[in-house]
């Protein structure tokens, strides 16, 4: 089966929220969803957060838990490859990602990321 990926559009936000709900995790606020993202309809989505200093972050990944696992794995790999290429195209010099999920850690290593340590994460709404 061929996987068709496309650019994430604002109209896709509802499905992103639905997938988060299905996974019992909070949805990102709509204003926080980055402009650069890709989606495989009915399967998965992921995003590139660009910063102002040549660094970027892969984040806001979510997948449909009701999708086929093999299709989900292929979609997440395809999305990751496209986000890495998008980062290269805009001159990103350092690309980072983080996760507590073992599956995501394995995927990151598969795509050439190296482990840079274990950290606690903090957030504060302003």
Fold-level CATH name: Aminopeptidase
- Fraction of residues in helices? 25-40%
On the 0 to 100 scale, the average pLDDT is 92
Number of helical segments with 4 or more residues = 3
Shape: globular
Provide the CATH architecture.
Answer: 3-Layer(aba) Sandwich
For the report, how would you describe the main beta sheet?
Answer: 5 strands, mixed
How far the N terminus sits from the C terminus, by CA atoms, comes to: 45 Å
Question: Which structural category do the helix and sheet elements fall into?
Answer: alpha+beta
Could you name the ranges where pLDDT drops below 50 across 5 or more consecutive residues? none
How many β-strand stretches?
5
The fraction of residues in strands falls at: 15-25%
Radius of gyration: 14 Å
SSE string: EHEEEHEH
| Largest sheet strand order | 1-2-3-4-5
Considering the protein shown, what is the CATH homologous superfamily? Gcn5-related N-acetyltransferase (GNAT)
By oligomeric state, this entry counts as single chain
CATH class: Alpha Beta
The gist of it:
The chain starts with a strand and ends in a 16-residue tail after the last helix.
